[in-house]
Specification:
Layout (H helix, E strand, L loop, with lengths): L3 H13 L3 H8 L3 H8 L7 H11 L3 H4 L29 H27 L2 H23 L14 H23 L10 H7 L4 H17 L2
Length: 221
Amino acid sequence: MNKDFPRVMKMLRHERGLRQKEAADQLGVAQALLSHYENGKRECGLDFLVSAANFYGVSVDFILGRTNSRNGTVVSEETLPESTVSESYSGDPAGAGTLLRKKLITNSLEVIFSLLMKAKNTKLAKAVSSYLMTAVYRAYRMVFSSGRENDENCFAVSADEAADKCLAKMSLDDVKARSAAKDGSADEKITNLRIEQEFPRQSAALFSVVTNVEKDLQKLD
């Protein structure tokens, strides 16, 4: 049985603000049957799957969890937009700090990924990317959980399970990255001077992150 189908069906109904009976009436099925679908007790037929996709305005692949894109497109380098988000936090001290931290992190990541590509170390690139993607996922879950009305059906893994497994996964990725780094396959030596010369705009952000994090780490002694 498809594990994503029940979760996505609940999420789509909640997004519409529909009661289960209302959704069942619109979909032309009994409430009890829809309840079985949403709780993973029964599998639906192809006709219902198509009807649900049309009703909610999403693709069948999205309902089945085969893609995160509602129109069914597959994410690729060509389909991803450039980062153009430039929120205004005027008048909000906490927001201003958030914008600064955003710039520090995004500029630092530009340097990291540029160095990864130049290093030509596939295992290292894979481990570091996996580590960072998990960190982004964990950060999103943290922010998402701050809203009491936010629907956890957006996720296939529960909040508590995700918290524990993310820490474990990041620890494993850390081990893999350090092991791959020992290969010493990089042709060029990384120095602060080199970083400043190759990344005159982003280097200050990276060095600021290094300094701030190391100050926090020293406080843990």
